[in-house]
Amino acid sequence: MNSRVTSFVYKCIFLNPCPKDDEVDLAIIGDKKFLEKATKNTRDIYANIIAVAVHRSGPVLEVYDVEGTRDKRLVIAYKMGTAAGLYSSLSDLYHYYGLTSSRKYIGQCSCQGYVH
Predict the structure, then answer these.
(1) CA distance 52 to 96
(2) Which of 39, 57, 112, 114 would bridge 80 by S-S if both were Cys, CB 3.0 to 4.6 A apart?
(3) Confidence of residue 5 (pLDDT cuts 50, 70, 90)
(4) What's the number of domains the chain is made of?
(5) Is residue 4 part of a domain?
(6) Sign of dihedral through CA atoms 11, 38, 110, 78?
(7) 10 Å Cβ neighbour count for 16?
(8) Where would I find the beta strands (DSSP E) of the chain?
(9) Range of 53's domain?
């Protein structure tokens, strides 16, 4: 079992740090580095889940197959302050089902939303 965890942390640079509350356009709310490095597929996934999350009070979860593998990609989006206890609950579920998370990415949007 690989217990090594690698974290990359950097300060977000938003093209528009104060967008409208219901803004969902990644070109407006996205972090500059994310927009430069993310694939079109990842940007599309994020755009779709943010469009749902901006109108909800609580997390939005979507699951995708990772092409060519048996892996699944769990994408979670929520507005700041609407997902209390989310991480401890996910951890409990992982343990209960004997699953592990091989990678975790957290993206912050300038609209006070997060995508994991």
Answers:
(1) 28
(2) 112
(3) low
(4) 1
(5) no
(6) negative
(7) 14
(8) 60-65, 72-79, 107-109, 113-115
(9) 26-115
Q: Is the pLDDT of residue 38 over 60?
A: yes
CB atoms inside a 10 Å sphere around CB 57: 10
Element (H, E) at 109: strand 107-109
Q: Is residue 89 part of a domain?
A: yes
Closest CA to 114 of 62, 87, 76: 76
For residue 108, the cross-strand partners are 114
pTM of this prediction?
A: 0.77
Can you give the pLDDT at residue 82? 82
Give yes or no for a contact between 110 and 29, defined as CB atoms under 8 angstroms apart.
Answer: yes
In which band, very low, low, confident or very high, does the pLDDT at 100 lie, cut at 50, 70 and 90? Answer: confident
Q: How many residues does the chain have?
A: 116
